[in-house]
Amino acid sequence: MKIVVLAGGTSTERDISLVTSHYVCESLRRNGHEANVLDVFYGIDDAEAIRFFLEKNDLAKLEEELKAKTAGVEAELERRKETREGFFGPNVLKLCKEADVVFMGLHGANGEDGKIQGTFELLDIKYTGTDSLSSAISMDKDLTKKVLVPNGIPMPKGIVLHKGEEFANPFYPCVVKPANGGSSVGVSIVNSEAELSKALDYAFESDDTVLVEEYVKGREFSAGVLNGEPLPVIEIVPLKGWYDYENKYADGATKHVCPAELSDEITKQMQHWAVECLKVAGVTIYGRVDMLLDENNNIFCLEINTLPGMTPTSLLPHEASEAGISFDELTQKVVELSINR
């Protein structure tokens, strides 16, 4: 099949998306597909577009070239606002229409939040992962809680704060995080009122809506789901600090234990909640749910990831591997499920 691996974009997770897309594209080529990486925001010129499905781009070189453009994203966004050129880069929609399927290698805003998925649905472009509505529900942590909690999903208590609102925090310690975002960008653990203002400023740099939640002290886990079936649970153990952006993507910064060292009962409960989270939010194909387990063995679901990372340090490929599913089998399965839905 001809496959566009859609990468980059404008979110704070742009560079992680480029890594994900690099590894996914390599895998798709090993699976026999005509696959190339395409930056959704910067696109390519007409001459490159003509050759797009005829020549394999140098993935390592392209990743570095596109990472070098990250610093200019904000300025380019401002320029396009003035010229009304829109979000999609040159030839992006044209090539996506020509492809048999688009593999969504995007992370974060304008990639994982349903906007691009909705565009593709209107243009009848096949793409991997769940649909636009469930993507939007899962990306917005405030909206996620409004959907999941009434359906019995256990989640930390908290409040929503909009930029400019007066706020007096009733509980410490707490976790402050942007409502829309991922990879722990903009997230802080706050232990006192003195730390709160700085944490709010940091979160509001990423989003106009912020969640302030009770801090749950415990072990951190993630449970993947593929085609409605749970994968082995993985425990995330940072060697220092907590599971922030640096620990997520720096080699050797975090220990992953899979299958997690849990009782069969707790393991089954976590897998149950992972499947239920995706079911209630309407997420299909694949996804991952992050969870905490406190000292009393209470499980708290934190968020749904509808386009999980596919980097060498990512969780979902590790979980799939423990289930006997290789990385190449995983990417092929995602393509097949998405094409046939």
Could you explain the architecture of this structure?
With 341 residues, the protein is an alpha+beta fold. It has three domains: 2-127, 3-Layer(aba) Sandwich (Rossmann fold), CATH 3.40.50; 139-150 and 218-339, D-amino Acid Aminotransferase, Chain A, domain 1 (2-Layer Sandwich); 157-214, ATP-grasp fold, A domain (Dna Ligase, domain 1). It is 39% helix and 22% strand. It is built from 13 helices and twelve strands. The chain has helices at residues 14-30, 46-51, 59-68, 73-83, 92-98, 115-123, 132-139, 141-148, 193-204, 245-249, 264-281, 315-322, 327-339, and strands spanning 2-7, 34-39, 101-104, 158-162, 174-178, 188-190, 209-214, 218-226, 229-238, 254-257, 286-294, 299-305. The protein has a five-stranded antiparallel β-sheet with strand order 10-9-8-11-12, sandwiched between helices. A four-stranded antiparallel β-sheet has the order 4-7-5-6, with helices on one face. Strands 2-1-3 form a three-stranded parallel β-sheet, sandwiched between helices. Strand 8 (218-226) and strand 9 form a beta hairpin. The longest helix is centred in the last third of the chain and has 18 residues, at 264-281. 45% of the residues are buried. Mg(2+) 1 binds at residues 290, 303. Mg(2+) 2 binds at residues 303, 305. Cell wall formation.
